[in-house]
Structures are given as structure tokens and as C-alpha cells.
């Protein structure tokens, strides 16, 4: 291979495919390789037979579960915020034309052993059974403050500089109870632990506004949307985009080995005796294991069911957040459920995932609070995987490594990693100023 590429991307996980698409649109010469013969890497979707092969080796799935081909079981299950960053990227790049989305039915929070719909506006706060009468009024005032807050409107700040005061300070001004703080921080602002309380309040207010705006976009029961046929469609959409702009794809390339010169800078990738040259390498942690550090583990259960999750208004698709404090844990637990309504299972079947940052070596015990919410389950698969972050200096070795996927059930942290990598590679900010009314086209099925 004599030609030199601007970037070689290794791995076809969602992060790598988004970057490949964005860099190709920018006019960079991109070669995209993967040791696997399918798209998606760790973020792929599996048929029932593939799921069995991965977790139960040679056993065959029971016939009563239905046709294997009708299953698209996400390995990294996540919903998209309807007004979120990934939707902006999809619209900005035009990848929406390759996909169809459907709104997610419900968003719930676990509190004192029960699950409740997440109130996201002042009107919903007044109706919610999550709070007593007086607490509803206090919460309503706080929601109105957040809804009215605008960066460039000092009148809306009520004398608070949210870049300086902490979330804890703002919340104490409204006298909210701990349980209310719990669902605001974890189910609305979608923080993963309680460290946000001592950070500038602006981050929490912006996250709450994103939730409320996403909820309003399709007038659904949740702020989330999800692609028909599962998330495996997303990497392929960005791969198509890259190809349209001249990107080259090579799947099933064994032992992709990054080559370094005497200064320790990457200059190419070798596979099957041939070396493709490049200026920069982008990859997931599995391709450069000596340049990453382990930062945690995710425990998860994949459950196949024949009914919706109880107490969720018979929702075909739903997220339930179990805040850490409710479980006496250091991090939140997440329940994600979708069904045949999103074409990820045969008619009458539901797929639920329970995930959390692992704190023990026993996922069966650790995930029990989430699994207990599901009701009867046909089949359960348990799994723990390691999370990695880059430990290299990309400006020294020209290697740009993504972080592993976390336990959250939405894409905001995933896309922030992509945007950060894009800036390091190109030296410029990703322009995401898009007309979100165009999102209606992306979510017309919603």
C-alpha cells in the first residue's frame, strides 16, 4: 500500500465510526480497518444465535424464544436524548437519512422501593406522586427557575452566578428534600454519582434543560429516542457517510498492528504482511492495550422477557434509574428495556438490560435490585467487562484512543468523548449548530 492516509481508524465501534464519518466529511483521507467481519465492535447488535454463542458457547437457543433473525440485542444499550448531542451530529452529517427512530415510551426513577414517572416540568411536578403537597410546591418553583434560566438574561439568574455557586447551594435555596434532590440529580440531570452537588450549578441546570427540551420535542413520555432495529444501525450509518466522502473500509483484517518509528510516533498499520501508512491512528482500547489504563468495570444482565416491566404503564420501551443513595451504592444502576415495537425482538418479546459500575465480582447479587423490578424473566445472561481510558500522550505518539463505554443508558458521555477526540485530531471545535426542527425528520416515526 503505497498511498499515505491522513488517518487510519481501527475498530468499527460507534465512536470510531462517528469519527471516521466526521473526518471524511472534513476532506481527510481515511482508511477504516477492523479485525471483525461485522460493524459495531463492542457496540454491535447480536441475533439470538450470536447471543447464545457469545454467552453460552455451543448451546442452541430454545425455539419458544422465536426466530433468531428477529433479535437485535445491543451489546452497549443506550437511548438518545431527542435534543442531545448525538442527534445534532446525526442531523449535521445527514446520517438521519439512513435510519428511522421511534420515541421511547417512559422514563422512571426508583424511590423507596417503588418506581415513579420522572417529573420534568413544573406542571408534572404538581401531578407527581413522588412528592408530598408542600414539596411539590417547592419543586415547582425550582423547575420554573431552571426553565426560565438563560445565560444571557441576568434577570433570570435571581442574583445567582451559576458558574460560581454549587448545585448544593442552589438546591438549599429552594429547601428541597433529599429524595427530590436524588431524582433531580440522577433522573433529570443524569449525573452518575453525587459529586455534582459540589460542582458549579450551571452544569446541572443545563442538563435539566436538555432533559426538558428533549421531552418536549416529540411530546412523548420520555426525552429519549431509539433507532428501529437497534443500535447496530448507527455505526453502519456513519460508515456509509465516510464511504460517500471517500473513506475506505476493510473488514476482517486480522492482527492490525500499529507501527511506530524510532521517536515513538505511529506511522502506519500492518495486517497480512502489508503496511498502510498514515499521519494519525484512531482506535478503541483493544488495539493498543499498552497505551490504556483500566478505570473500572461494568456489570450487566441481559434479560429476555414476554411482558413489559411491571408498573411502567405497559411501556414497550423504558428507562429506569436507580440512584446510588437508594441502593446504598457508590454509583447509579440503570434499567433499559425495548421490545418488538423497535424491531429488536419477535412479537411479544421484550429485552431488558440492567447495568451499573461494578463494585464487586458478583453481578448476579449486585444487579438484583434492578432485576427484581422486571418480573418473570425467560432467559438471563450476566456479564462483567473492563472499562479503559487512554494513558498515552496523543501529541507525542499520534494515537487517539477512545474510552470504553460506561454503564449509562444514554449517549451524552459517549458523544462528548467523540467531540473531544475530534478536536484533538483536527485542532478545531466540531460545529453542531444545527436546526433541530430538522430532527422531526429524524424522529418522524416518534
UniProtKB/TrEMBL annotation:
Alphabetical UniProt keywords: GTPase activation
InterPro entries, A to Z: FAD/NAD-bd_sf, GDP_dissociation_inhibitor, RabGDI
UniProt keyword annotation of Disulfide bond present: no
The keyword Metal-binding is assigned to this record: no
Transmembrane domains' residue ranges: none
One GO location term (cellular component): cytosol
One Pfam family this sequence matches: GDI
UniProt function note: Regulates the GDP/GTP exchange reaction of most RAB proteins by inhibiting the dissociation of GDP from them, and the subsequent binding of GTP.
PANTHER family registered for this protein in UniProt: GUANOSINE NUCLEOTIDE DIPHOSPHATE DISSOCIATION INHIBITOR (PTHR11787:SF10), RAB GDP-DISSOCIATION INHIBITOR (PTHR11787)
Family: Belongs to the Rab GDI family.
Protein name: Guanosine nucleotide diphosphate dissociation inhibitor
Organism of provenance: Musa acuminata subsp. malaccensis (Wild banana)
Taxon lineage: Eukaryota, Viridiplantae, Streptophyta, Embryophyta, Tracheophyta
